[in-house]
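Work through this:
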Amino acid sequence: MMTHLTLIVPFSVPPGTGDDDPEGVMSAALLRQLELPALGKLLTRASPGARERHDDPYLRSLPHERWLAGRAGLDTARVPSAPFMRLADGGSADEQAWACLELVHIHAARDHLVLMDPARLGVRASEAEALHRALDALLGESGIRLEALAPGRWYLPEAVFGPLEATTPLRATGRNIDIWMQEGERARDWRRLQNEIQMTWFDHPVNQAREAAGELPINSVWLHGGGRLQAVPRLADAVYTDDPFAAGLALAAGAARQPLPAGLAALADGGSALALLDAAAEAHIGQDWGRWLDAMHGLEDAWFAPALAALESGRCEALTVVLAGENHFAEFRVTRGDLRKFWRGLGSRGDWRALLSDLALAA
């Protein structure tokens, strides 16, 4: 029996109203096309938990990152993800503050620059090694030591540029990067190094080969997540995730960390478990709403319906679902006994689409 299961679902809420859709027509249309009966029953029978309410559309982290940070007792205003990501990528546990240097592609649009989703790059180990070697002279002159622990993620001591206000890459992906650039006392020094790296890689053989193969060149780096490793509580006995921040939190707390399986059926019984389900993230960020609907329906089949069945059968005692959109998260907790409270599914409370719509529009 599983004592408690937590499902964190980033980008599971359709976009709210904005400049391009002031009446929320697209959001309403997407909600009508969602067919999530199991998730709907879970949400309408659940007791509401923590919920994020703010009116700041320019927070530099993602809602599910702030949820994780809050549960771990970390700063939610400036989420220190890098030292935990570094731990997940094989770095040692130490007391030094670290920042993550992520390999990215920045696209030049007509009148602005756009950060592309780093997951689209699929950086190979051989490519990362060659690009790192190309920086030897530049880094040597600057006295900067980089730890190239993962092909797409490198790390450097935060003291190199001091604490900076920095944005999670996915938060800035697909947007004009001007308002998301790093800020702080030594931000200009950082931008100088970033520009020099971009010039070094501009015509590098790695990028020539990638462009010839129809792939995005790796033409820049993005600094983010600065902070120090801290003692954190266990979020669950077992954590299933491919996300390096969530994985690092698990390792720092001494929890078992496993790759995310295809569905809930692969989770082991016994103790508590947490799974971070990010299947809808890429489509949401890319505004590919057909793919987003497919991803959400896939999560229904592989996770939400089995979770409901596990509660009904007694395999799981309690379930927490954390849904996150672009700006907010909301937490829902449901037990086996709650499923019998049929009256919770009546009236306006029984409209799970309204719950998602409210979260999309929440301030």
Observations:
- The chain has 14 helices and 13 strands.
- The radius of gyration is 21 Å.
- Residues 27 and 224 are 31 Å apart (CA to CA).
- The longest helix spans residues 289-313.
